[in-house]
Each structure stands twice: as structure tokens, then as C-alpha cells.
Fold:
Amino acid sequence: MSDEVRAVRLNSGIRRGEQIEFYFDGQPLKAFKGETIAAALMASGHMVARTMDSQPLGVYCNIGICHSCLMTVNGVRSIRTCRTPVSQGCQVETQHFERTK
Ligand code: FES
Structure:
């Protein structure tokens, strides 16, 4: 059994919004209107939202409480991507944090 974490979009019984394109660290990805940025990223196989001291962190609560999904969106830092709808052409970037010593 693999311990790899994967996310998939459900394909039956779901009515999706229009397909759109957005950018993750400069790479074009497909999403559907109505999805959050975090959901669109996970469905595309990207599980890391940010790093802390070079350690990868991904979505944890997925309801806007833990701040584990903070990313830079259209140049604005620290956006909770689990609460932010993806939009056509938006630029999403991994955010890197370092603890102050
Ligand atoms: S995953 Fe917890 S706030 Fe987004």
C-alpha cells in the first residue's frame, strides 16, 4: 500500500462550472469555476501550499481556520486558498516562511 496522498475530482453526479485556466508558480493549470484555489491545486496533484523552514505544508483544515494553505495570489501574500475561489488567469504562488530566531 502506498502512503502517497492524492486528491481527485469526483466525476459523477457533479455539475461543474465553466472550465478556466490559472497559473501555479507560472505553470498553467485547469480548474472549474466554483472551486477554491486549494481544491483546484489538489485536483491537479499539487499538495504543497507553502513551506516553513523549507518543510512542505499543505491544506489541513480546509475551512479557513488553520492558515496552513496560505499562498500568494495575484501578488497579495498570505491568502487562505481553501477559502478563495479560483478565477480565470489568476496567478498563484507557493509562499515560503522562515522562523525568526
Ligand atoms: S487549510 Fe486551514 S485555513 Fe486553509
